[in-house]
Specification:
The chain is α/β, with parallel strands linked by helices and 313 residues long. The protein contains 10 helices and 11 strands. α2 packs antiparallel against α9, α6 runs parallel beside α7 and α7 crosses α10. It comes from Aspergillus terreus.
Length: 313
């Protein structure tokens, strides 16, 4: 199965699909967010190369259950997930920083002799190229797995899919969205993103995504209330990124220890804990139907497969 060769430049092993001047767009998003009530900063600020490294530290904490839950699910159900793929498929992973989990899925697809053209999407060029090198080495001799990177945001990926769709070697497109990333936004916003990808694919694609369904408050606080620790460092890294985007030191970390009036909220990080009913509703809102699920033994995390078909398909 040949790779797609759109008219985009390469940066290392990755295709640069960025559509616009990232710095100007980011500065505008920061200023817009600070005028909202409650105030907010774009989550994308946190996920540069440094942010990805800090996140991996967070995932090593035993109290941070999402990573261990995903690992268990993949160990038990990777072959079942691979069963849902056609003989020839395109797999596009959204927001990948660390590709260890992806390697398990690709290995299962390889074992079933599925032809897969895999694209890893990320905004961090160094992390993306480093991860792709490891993954490419793992599958360099595979007759069925091809690996490429896409440097850009989710919105950039939508435009890339739209412009490249005519040259895809197969109509069987699956998007992979792990790490509960889908719940980093509100349900309506996540559904809107799903709809954008569905439309870019001509109305026919599928998603496999991870979702955190834990409702145990003490367990959730144990995973996220780590000040000082990696989660605090991720947020602080976002402030450094905001300063770089704006062009001067607006946020001084020494001034953010943090004291605010009781009840004041500044949103920077959202990690939703959705019920199965909310997941089904979000899927339907985006034009998809929930078809498969693979759930952790404690029922606190799952992988879900949703499908959309064009009219008459």
């Amino acid at each position: 199965m040949g790779s797609i060769s759109p008219e985009y430049p390469f940066v290392g092993r990755a295709i640069d699909i960025r559509q616009s001047n990232e710095q100007l767009d980011l500065k505008g998003a920061i200023l817009e967010g600070l005028h909202k009530r409650p105030q907010e900063l774009p989550a994308v600020l946190m996920w540069d190369d440094k942010g990805s490294e800090i996140y991996e530290r967070l995932c090593e904490d035993p109290a941070y259950y999402p990573r261990s839950c995903e690992t268990e699910i993949l160990q038990r159900y990777c072959a079942d997930m691979a069963d849902t793929f056609s003989a020839s498929s395109i797999l596009i992973e959204l927001g990948c920083g660390n590709l260890q989990k992806t390697s398990a899925i690709l290995a299962a697809l390889e074992a079933q002799k599925k032809q897969v053209l895999y694209y890893a999407v990320d905004i961090s060029v160094d992390t993306l190229n480093r991860s792709l090198l490891d993954l490419s080495n793992r599958f360099c001799s595979s007759p069925t797995i091809r690996v490429t990177g896409l440097l850009g945001t989710y919105a950039d990926c939508v435009e890339w899919v739209k412009s490249s769709f005519h040259s895809f070697s197969t109509p069987n497109i699956t998007f992979l969205w792990m790490g509960n990333t889908i719940a980093n936004t509100e349900i309506e916003e996540a559904a809107s993103m799903l709809a954008c990808f569905r439309q870019a694919c001509g109305g026919n694609c599928s998603f496999i995504f991870g979702a955190d369904t834990c409702s145990d408050i003490s367990r959730i606080f144990g995973a996220y209330d780590d000040h000082p620790g990696p989660l605090h460092d991720i947020v602080a890294n976002g402030m450094h990124a905001a300063n770089r985007a704006i062009g001067h030191k607006v946020f001084k970390l020494e001034d953010w220890k943090v004291r605010v009036w009781q009840g004041t909220k500044i949103n920077q990080l959202l990690s939703g804990k959705w019920s199965n009913e909310q997941i089904a509703f979000m899927s339907q809102l985006g034009g998809f139907t929930l078809t498969d699920s693979w759930i952790h033994s404690e029922g606190i995390y799952g992988f879900y497969r949703i499908c959309a078909e064009s009219p008459g398909a």
